[in-house]
Specification:
This protein is an all-beta fold. It has one domain: Methylamine Dehydrogenase, Chain H (7 Propeller). 3% of the residues lie in helices and 50% in strands. A hairpin with a 7-residue loop joins strand 16 and strand 17. The longest helix is centred in the middle third of the chain and has 7 residues.
């Protein structure tokens, strides 16, 4: 019997969405409201909302009834960034702001009522000689939420970055602080996503482009820092003589290894040929496995859009998720995304690097909703955003492809991508993919799932889909094993829906 997807199998039967409960539209919240779904804290569902200088947390009960709007008066009128780390009975609010020439990175602890549990505390400060318009600090936390890493990168010298790391316990006790130099190749080196494993090891990759203005990766180095180490461990991963597109990293805490993967080409300006993957063993700090998965014509036929030819079938696909299994196997989920417009040069690489500051590089979109979306370089053109088929690949612990399947869909929207793409809900026995789809000229929330064996199931339209609600699946958040909160618009007012599976 195949290993289960991430969680242990809770039931041998398929679970279908049972009901949807909506919050009432609030006149204070419109489609221009910035927001982030925090999660379930102290039995309540918390949502952060920002309207200009107004920062509140909406507290909802299990039926999505708004209990209170709690003003977060510790947040300054203008801040550079805000992040949330929710626990079962409290939540950390990490925020960054500037006063005069000092940038502060502080934390506030709130309860399940959205109320402060004490005064905010500065974690660090940085003196700068200019007015910052983008964040300096970032944070990541381990899968078990026992450790939190705060880091900042000083790139003033393009050939020698200075990375400062602060490792905390889940009680915000400082475990380690170090300031480490990292040699860089000017205009050619870039970073992947940053991660923290359960033992407190900091993990990311440095990728080298083929030239200062190149689009492809010619070299990959895995960089790690132990919980109390004062240096970076830099290991050449190699590319198997392939031209790489991008690199994503996932921590496999159960098997103590890291998964590095990305699409590859045979040559520059070629078409995507398949998937390049490296398994890196943490204990020995060595490459455990290297694999090339060639996409077959059969898979290309399933994955391509109606207008694409087979050779170009995967040229618009982007890796969205890497889901690890307890036995060391893993799933890779990618989605076709592209734009169409007149006079725009918006391309694949703009999707990865050319968007607003609310989005973390190589994450494509974050859980923080910004109504302005992202822009193609140059601006001033009408852009249509498209999101099409979803590809799911399942591998065993040795990188062997077990099965593959494609969820067919076709979505588009003009000037915004907030209503397209999808959200994955892991109910333990299968993965549900929720996305908007037009049926008889009406946009409905569709649900298709994939079982551990790769079987695709299309469920009937979800019940209680009231007319007039427009869902934004990509900004949804799973708050428990069988519950998801998803933002939606009703007559241009922002509200939220809780879906029970």
């Amino acid at each position: 019997m195949k290993a289960l997807l991430v969680l242990l199998l809770l039931s041998p039967f398929f679970l279908v969405a049972q009901r949807i409960m909506y919050s009432n539209p609030d006149q204070d919240d419109s489609k221009k409201t910035n927001f982030e779904i925090i999660g379930k804290v102290g039995g309540n569902i918390l949502v952060f909302k920002n309207n200009r200088a107004d920062n509140v947390i909406g507290v909802y009960d299990n039926d999505m009834k708004l209990l209170s709007r709690v003003n977060q008066d510790y947040l300054p009128d203008k801040y550079l960034n805000v992040e949330f780390i929710p626990f079962s009975d409290f939540c950390y609010v990490l925020f960054e702001y500037q006063r005069k020439n000092i940038v502060h990175y502080a934390v506030e602890k709130i309860d399940g009522q959205g109320k402060k549990l004490g005064p905010p505390v500065d974690l660090d400060t940085t003196q700068i000689g200019f007015s910052a318009n983008a964040k300096i600090y970032s944070s990541v936390f381990s899968e078990d939420k026992q450790k939190i890493m705060v880091y900042k990168i000083n790139s003033k010298n393009p050939k020698n970055y200075i990375i400062t790391t602060y490792l905390y316990s889940n009680q915000l006790e400082l475990i380690d602080r170090h300031r480490i130099e990292l040699p860089m190749m000017e205009n050619r080196d870039m970073f992947s996503n940053f991660l923290l494993d359960n033992e407190g090891q900091f993990v990311f990759a440095k990728v080298t482009k083929n030239s200062a203005y190149g689009d492809y990766i010619s070299k990959v180095a895995l960089i790690t820092k132990g919980p109390t180490s004062d240096t970076f461990s830099i290991r050449d991963v190699g590319t198997n003589d392939r031209v790489l597109d991008e690199i994503k990293i996932k921590v496999d805490n159960n098997n103590k290894r890291y998964i590095l993967t990305g699409f590859y080409y045979k040559q520059r300006k070629g078409n995507i040929e398949g998937l390049y993957t490296v398994l890196w063993e943490k204990l020995t700090d060595t490459k455990l496995k290297e694999s090339l998965t060639v996409f077959t014509e059969e898979l290309r036929t399933l994955a391509k859009s109606s207008e694409a030819n087979l050779k170009m079938a995967f040229n618009d696909f982007f890796i969205k998720n890497i889901i690890v299994q307890r036995n060391g196997g893993y799933l890779i989920v990618s989605e076709s995304e592209y734009t169409t417009s007149r006079g725009s040069t918006f391309n694949r690489w703009d999707y990865m690097y050319g968007y607003n500051n609310f989005i973390t590089p190589l994450d494509y979109y974050s859980s923080y909703y910004n109504p302005n979306g992202r822009y193609p370089y140059g601006g001033g053109v009408t852009t249509r955003y498209n999101a099409e088929n979803i590809l799911v690949l399942s591998f065993d612990k040795d990188c062997n492809l077990e099965w593959s399947n494609v969820i067919p869909k076709s979505q588009f929207d003009d000037e915004s991508e907030n209503l397209i793409s999808h959200h994955i809900v892991n109910t333990g026995g299968e993965l549900h993919f929720l996305y908007n789809q037009y049926e008889r000229r009406t946009q409905l929330l569709s649900d298709q799932s994939i079982s551990p064996e790769g079987k695709l199931t299309r469920y009937p339209t979800l019940r209680n889909l009231d007319k007039g609600y427009e869902f934004m699946p990509r900004f949804g958040k799973q708050i428990s094993g069988k519950q998801i909160v998803m933002p939606c618009l009703y007559r241009n007012y922002l509200c939220f829906a809780k879906i029970d599976f």
